[in-house]
Amino acid sequence: MHEFLQRRGELWLEMLRRLGASLIFLGQALLQRPRFSTGFPLLMRQLYAIGFMSLSIIVVSGLFIGMVLGLQGYNILVTYGSEQALGTMVSLTLLRELGPVVTGLLFAGRAGSALTAEIGLMKATEQLSSMEMIGVDPLRQVVAPRFWAGFISMPLLALIFSAVGILGGKMVGVDWLGVDEGSFWNHMQSSVEFRHDILNGALKSLVFG
Asked: What angle do CA 47, 99, 73 make, to 5 degrees?
């Protein structure tokens, strides 16, 4: 029993140690803002590699998810004679919940794994140690530009995902199933609020980023 409790205690202490190290690393990355003279070109390069290069998968996924939402939402709403509210359902679902969550998953799968592999390779080949030897801070030079690029890209990608998804829902609902286009957009505009829907969705995507 004593050995069991000891092993469990060591396991929990190790988990707490790793959690603390991760939080310290996150805090250091937040504080290490890239210098404008040297860090801005690095930041722009990472914005292109992380944000712009993720646009294709974001747009394609958003379009098809919006089309699925439009189709399934229409099948549910038409039962109650409320198919004109399809725009409300598609837009709120994407802006509030689905957009930030799916964008975060796609971003982690596409950009997150690539960044992890890149930094891991730099660590394995001792490039980070070489930077420290010549007086260059790896946190500021390597981690900070990638961190802030992801922080900036995530809300923009989430908004693009939601906008393309709404367009996909409109294509299915209006162009295919015959929902009135004016009702689709009017219901959406009357239901979506900038502060509670768009801004909250952007803040959620920041956390995921």
From this structure: 150
d(CA 66, CA 98) in angstroms, rounded, equals 10
Token pair for 171 = 């294509």
Residue 33: predicted pLDDT: 64
pLDDT in tens, 63-104: 999 999 999 999 988 888 888 888 899 999 999 888 999 998
The Cβ-side half-sphere exposure at 143, using a 13 Å CA radius, reads 17
- Distance (Å, rounded) from C-alpha 138 to C-alpha 185? 49
Average pLDDT over residues 17-43: 69
Report the predicted TM-score, pTM, of the whole model to 2 decimal places.
0.80
Q: DSSP state, 177? A: T
Could you tell me the CA-to-CA distances from 142 to 38, 75, 120 in Å, in that order?
A: 12, 49, 11
Q: Domain spans of the chain? A: 1-31, 37-208
How would you class 82 by CB atoms within 10 Å of its CB: exposed for 0-12, middle for 13-18, buried for 19 or more?
middle
